[in-house]
Write a structure and sequence with these properties.
Layout (H helix, E strand, L loop, with lengths): L23 E5 L3 H10 L4 E9 L2 E8 L2 E11 L15 E4 L3 H10 L4 E8 L2 E7 L5 E7 L2
Parallel strand pairs: 1-4, 5-8
Antiparallel strand pairs: 2-3, 3-4, 6-7, 7-8
């Protein structure tokens, strides 16, 4: 029996046929306790597990309670204490919220720095804030 791959049959091959889904965004933080305080205390993620990766590297997997499998992985080096330098490629990650005004009130309660105040843009309203390491998070409300 011979099997023919999508590439062999002349069709474009993508992962779409394998039903992929984005699970987590992972990035380095300089202070894990400060980062967890923000992501758990302000954004409401729940800590799922901590994984030691070796050579001082560890990661904490966080997920939203009502969206299992969707969350953030915070990585840090227990042997390095310096702040992280963001490259030119990072822009932001986007969290859809049901009410951007209410979301920004929560961010204000946690003294979260605002990058972009609430802005209307076509069928969306959004605002952008910074986490303790300076990563930008967009809070996006879809207007129906």
């Amino acid at each position: 029996m011979t099997t023919t791959s999508a590439a062999d049959s002349g069709k474009a091959s993508t992962l779409a046929a394998l039903k992929p889904r984005l699970l987590h965004v992972a990035y380095h933080v300089s202070n894990i306790e400060r980062a967890k305080a923000f992501y758990v205390g302000a954004l409401g993620l729940k800590e799922q597990m901590t994984i030691p990766l070796g050579n001082g590297m560890q990661e904490v997997i966080l997920a939203f309670p009502d969206a299992p499998g969707a969350g953030v992985i915070l990585m840090w080096n227990t042997q390095a204490g310096a702040d992280r330098v963001h490259g030119d490629g990072y822009s932001r990650f986007v969290l859809q919220v049901s009410d951007v005004e209410a979301a920004m009130k929560v961010m204000a309660e946690h003294k979260t720095p605002v990058v972009t105040p609430i802005t209307a843009a076509g069928p969306f309203k959004y605002a952008m804030v910074k986490d303790p390491d300076g990563y930008v998070i967009e809070l996006l409300q879809m207007m129906r």
